[in-house]
Amino acid sequence: MVKFRHFAATAAGLTGFVSVGAVAHRSLAADFVFRDDAPPAISGPPPLEKEAFESRWEVIVGGGASFEPAYEGGKKMKISPIPIVSIGYADWLQLDPGGLGVTLYKDGGFNVDARLGYEPGRSEGDGDLLKGLGDVDFGVTAGIKAGYEWDAFEFYGIIDKTIGGSKGLVGKIGTSYGWHMGERLIVATSLEATIADKNYMDSYFSVDAAQSAASGLPQYKAKAGLQRVDFDISATYAFDENWLLQAGAGVGLLVGDAANSPIVERELQPKVSLSLGYRF
Length: 280
Fold this sequence. Notes:
Blueprint: H1 50-55, E1 57-69, E2 77-89, E3 93-96, E4 99-107, E5 110-119, E6 139-150, E7 153-164, E8 169-181, E9 185-196, H2 198-205, H3 209-215, E10 225-238, E11 243-254, H4 256-259, E12 268-279
Antiparallel strand pairs: 1-2, 1-12, 2-3, 3-4, 4-5, 5-6, 6-7, 7-8, 8-9, 9-10, 10-11, 11-12
């Protein structure tokens, strides 16, 4: 029997270290991390002999593609490559294309993680309605995640602050559940709600006077609050101890002031992805 453990990612897109849901979006690379058994609960790396040290490293490389909206709120879909280089150590450190995560505290099912990632921003060339609005710059995100694992469930809350870019503060609350279906297949689901501050909402959903004049869109002021809700499901299959295949699908729903923005063409934001990874 092949034994493996699922580590679900929570990011919308790769907008932050494992940002759910969405788009993706939460980090797909992290979904490929498996372990033969769960290490004991720790709050930091214990002293290890060389052989034990090497055995607790996890490295996965691979790639795939996603099919999702060209921008948040758009209806035009695009195919994007997904490069995967995922490095984990002893269930307390994870580095992947979404960013870096480090477990600061772990006691039983409760854990606190520090997060460092990025917000990719947005180009006005991503959609017709964005022309004249200018670009939203790239930014670095720093935050913290607190979660509680109970059996196959995880309940969590996340706060991420963007340095540069939108300068936004984004919070997420959600739950995930994963289960084995046979010896080689794991299915995981997640449900997540995103709350954004006025900086984030202004950057991605507001239209000021200058932008209105340049784009022809009406002026609009998006307020802070609940911004979107996401549901995701993924299936990861281990062909053997090394090769892993993952298929994922999800849908996000823009709500509140985000949904009412004049740049939003479609409130429902679907996505699908397929990735192949090799575990060393």
